[in-house]
Design a protein that fits this description.
The complex is a heterodimer of chains A (283) and B (545). Chain A has helices at 20-34, 54-57, 70-80, 92-98, 100-109, 154-161, 174-186, 208-214, 227-234, 253-257, 276-280, and strands spanning 42-46, 61-64, 85-91, 114-119, 165-170, 191-196, 215-217, 240-247. Chain A is α/β, with parallel strands linked by helices and 283 residues long. In chain A, helix 1 packs across helix 7, helix 4 (92-98) packs across helix 5 (100-109) and helix 5 (100-109) crosses helix 6. Chain B has 17 helices and 20 strands. In chain B, a hairpin with a 6-residue loop joins strand 2 and strand 3. The chains are: A alpha/beta (283), B alpha/beta (545). Strand 2 of chain A pairs parallel with strand 15 of chain B.
């Protein structure tokens, strides 16, 4: 049985004391350990922002992409080797700003990926500018008079785009988050887990206290097979639900793109590919 | 006595089937012992607009078209108006007076007019006007007294998958055009062609050659976003399923990153685009370099800047490709000059990318990507060369993915096997841990750049065509090779002592070899299809010449 410690690289995290990322990191490591996943068969793909550091702190294979490009890299990796568990970890700017296009397309493809978004509603690493999920009126360095735009709602976008596992967690509730991540990794399809993550340095508004007052857990009465219900819950704003909003089983992109029972692309023999018939065709 | 050369041209509106008609005409000759080069010009739209297709046929190797036409098939008046002055002396124009009025007064003396009821014949046979182009093929062959059976054979192959009826209608249409000309125009035409043999040559475009080479090289993952003139690679890869994942992505950014992801876990992968898409890919180029992930990227140039001329050829992206993406890193730039080089150098591109864990850019242009040329069957003797990929038992406890080695190349492990590491886009040490210290940074930057030296030893110097000693030396790169080879033939006829230095590799730049080749040139003329002499600048920067 794997231990949480197995997934620790020993590198000291460089996040601010109290950062929500510590809770998420704990949840990710615990989820991987409890699922007893082979470290060699796991690939973390991270992007850019405070969340890019997961590639340094989770002891599996890891690839740090560039800003916004986590999902295309992950898609290539999954399609080339479907034996890999690919866990994507990025931020709200990375995924819902510069990477939004890829987010929508990855969801509609139903790639078998787990996508954890550390959503702190602010650009932290660049020292505090507005983010796609910043609340209207929120004052940042780039919006000193208050954010004019409405925030995106990652959950309803994921639901509309066709994600088959849509969840929201909270960095301050590691136990719940861990279960959501485990569920996402085990889910056969595109799993999105948006995680409320307090930024103790730059987000003065969405603090631990603020979340604790606002959040509640989806209960037994929530039907995770109902998209309608999921939309309704995802649109709530007075109180904010966390938990699994929606889950659906359907074929993944890999199921349909790869010939049945074919070996992963990386294991196929390429030493002597015959192209005689391709040349015949041109004669 | 039969002739050995023919230039044929067909033109009409987009949507008239100009491309397939031109290809059929080319195949008639590539299947009967001739050498062929063909090229098509079309605007960026689907219906309307002027399309034309040039086919050049000779009994010896041809590298480019001439632009003139011994026979011009004018499917509309616009074609006749635009191209009548390119019809050769005592050439011919085939047209249908029902919708294309050409009076003998508006064309040069000596040109023969063949008024053929293309539409009427087509309608009689298939009820529509869609086979007028096929009728014109038959008429063309009748004029030069060519063996009709070859055309019937090509039609049967080309339309075979559309069913027997379509094949028969096409053959009947062509035959009716053939018979009409034979019957009505008895005066012999000045060019008469005879089948040389039953030998079939391969008729192949640059993009097809690249695609077949990629498949041969073991490319397992191809991702792209459609963009002329690279799109036909996507079509080819999708149509010829070899247990390859072919993915059309949401944009070029996703295309290059997906290819990097696939390559990172161990699959040979490729993407292709044109200038505009390459702009979007530049960030990925740097990512591949920083994470030392092999990548093959085809950049099929068209005229820029911006949307530019979407379907026209140009060679103006050389310096862009050489400098694309921030920072410094080694890259290979390959500039094949013809379909043969497209094939062999694409094979090489995969080996270089894999062996040295670097991005390799293959630069073509619309003229090379989409024009057909006859070629001998490609030699498929090929060895897949990769950098060391460690087996589980060879992975040491202190495995360093980015080990600082003499060549700059470090042994890989692959996700799914022993040897866990992280590949950050952030600067990192030999293990892949993020670093900030200037000393460590210099070690890693040097390590990566060091690869260029080893790659240099593996790539050839520019190739010399013609005698070593010449009065004039033409210098070129990439797809202008064909036109220059043809120009050499003409210059030789004019008794000029000319040779030609062709660059099929640009980076790493072989400065010493280039200096040796060009230093003694009495008069050097650079031929490249751009306005700012990009290669000339590169040569001067690297050699002082």
């Amino acid at each position: 049985m794997a231990k949480i410690e197995d997934f620790n690289t020993g590198q000291t995290p460089v996040w601010c004391p109290g950062c929500g990322n510590f809770g998420i990191l704990m949840a990710v490591r615990s989820a991987l350990a409890e699922l007893n996943i082979k470290r060699e068969n796991t690939l973390i793909v991270s992007g850019i922002g405070c969340s890019d550091k997961y590639n340094q702190y989770v002891n599996t294979y890891a690839f740090e992409s560039i800003h916004g490009r986590i999902l295309p890299v992950a898609m290539g990796a999954r399609l080339a080797n479907y034996n890999l568990k690919v866990v994507c970890i990025g931020g709200d700017g990375d995924g819902y700003g510069i990477g939004m296009c890829h987010f929508v397309h990855a969801a509609r493809r139903n790639l078998n990926l787990t996508y954890i978004v550390c959503d702190n509603q602010i650009y932290g690493l660049t020292t505090g500018q507005t983010s796609p999920t910043s609340d209207k009126g929120f004052k940042t360095k780039s919006t000193p008079n208050g954010n004019i735009e409405m925030p995106v709602n990652p959950l309803t976008i994921a639901l509309s785009a066709g994600a088959t596992y849509v969840a929201r967690g909270f960095a301050g509730d590691v136990a719940t988050l861990k279960e959501l991540i485990k569920g996402g990794i085990q889910h056969n399809g595109f799993a999105v887990i948006d995680v409320f993550q307090p930024c103790v340095t730059f987000n003065y508004k969405n603090t631990y206290e603020w979340f604790n007052a606002k959040l509640y857990k989806l209960g037994e009465d929530h039907d995770t097979s109902s998209k309608e219900m999921a939309f309704k819950r995802a649109n709530e704003s007075e109180k904010l639900p966390i938990g699994l909003f929606y889950k659906e089983d359907k074929p993944t992109y890999e199921d349909e793109a790869l010939p049945a029972k074919a070996k992963p692309l990386v294991e196929q023999d390429i030493s002597n590919v015959n192209v005689d018939d391709l040349m015949d065709e041109l004669m | 006595m039969a002739n050995s050369k023919l230039n044929w041209k067909i033109g009409g509106k987009a949507g008239y089937g100009i491309m397939v008609t031109g290809l059929i005409f080319s195949k008639v000759f590539s299947r009967s012992g001739y050498h062929v080069f063909d090229t098509v010009e079309y605007p960026s739209l689907i219906r309307g607009g002027h399309n034309f297709y040039d086919v050049r046929v000779e009994d010896e190797e041809v590298h480019s078209h001439t632009g003139t036409a011994d026979i011009l098939v004018a499917l509309n008046k616009e074609t006749a108006d635009l191209h009548k002055n390119n019809v050769s002396e005592s050439g011919a124009i085939i047209f249908d007076s029902i919708d294309t009025k050409i009076s003998s007064g508006e064309i040069r003396k000596g040109i023969m007019l063949y008024d053929v009821p293309l539409l009427e014949i087509s309608k009689k046979i298939c009820g529509k006007d869609m086979m007028r182009n096929t009728v014109s093929l038959g008429a063309s062959l009748a004029i030069i007294d060519y063996d009709f059976d070859v055309l019937a054979g090509v039609l049967a192959d080309i339309f075979g998958d559309k069913g027997k009826e379509i094949v028969e209608q096409n053959i009947s249409s062509a035959k009716a055009g053939y018979d009409y000309v034979k019957e009505k125009y008895k005066a012999p035409f000045n060019i008469r062609m005879k089948k040389i043999s039953n030998e079939r040559k391969m008729l192949v475009t640059g993009n097809e050659a690249i695609s077949i080479a990629a498949i041969k090289a073991g490319c397992k993952f191809y991702s792209a976003y459609p963009m002329t003139p690279a799109s036909s690679i996507l079509h080819y890869m999708a149509a010829h399923d070899r247990k390859i994942v072919v993915k059309q992505t949401e944009d070029e950014i996703a295309a290059i990153h997906a290819a990097i992801g696939a390559s990172f876990v161990g699959a040979r992968s490729m993407t292709a685009t044109s200038g505009g898409g390459f702009c979007l890919m530049t960030e990925g180029l740097g990512l591949a370099a920083m994470t030392e992930t092999p990548l093959v990227l085809v950049l099929a140039q068209r005229a820029g800047p911006s949307t530019g001329l979407a379907t026209r050829t140009e060679q103006a992206d050389l310096k862009f490709a050489m400098n694309a993406s921030q920072g410094e890193f080694p890259r290979v730039i390959i500039t094949p000059g013809d379909v043969e080089e497209c094939f062999y150098l694409t094979l090489k591109a995969f080996n270089l990318a894999d062996k040295y864990q670097v991005p390799v850019i293959i630069m073509t242009d619309k003229h090379l990507s989409e024009s057909h040329k006859t070629a001998e069957r490609f030699d498929t003797d090929y060895t897949v060369e990769r950098s060391v990929i460690l087996n589980d038992k060879d992975v040491k406890d202190d495995y360093k993915r980015f080990e600082d080695t003499k060549t700059g190349v470090s042994p890989r492990t692959l996700p799914g096997r022993k040897g866990i590491f992280r590949a950050p886009s952030y600067e990192h040490d030999e293990h892949g841990w993020n670093i900030e210290e200037p000393e460590d940074r210099m070690v890693m930057a040097d390590k990566r750049l060091r690869k260029a030296k080893s790659i240099m030893n593996e790539i050839p110097a520019p190739k010399l065509y013609g005698k070593k000693d010449a009065d004039i030396t033409i210098v070129g790169w990439g797809g202008t090779k064909g036109p220059i080879m043809e120009a050499m033939k003409l210059l030789k006829k004019d008794k000029l002592n000319v040779n030609f230095v062709h660059f099929s590799f640009i980076l790493p730049f072989k400065a010493e070899a280039v200096t040796k080749m060009l230093k003694g040139a009495r008069k050097a003329i650079i031929v490249e299809q751009n306005r700012t002499l990009q290669l000339a600048g590169v040569i001067r920067e690297n050699t002082g010449i």
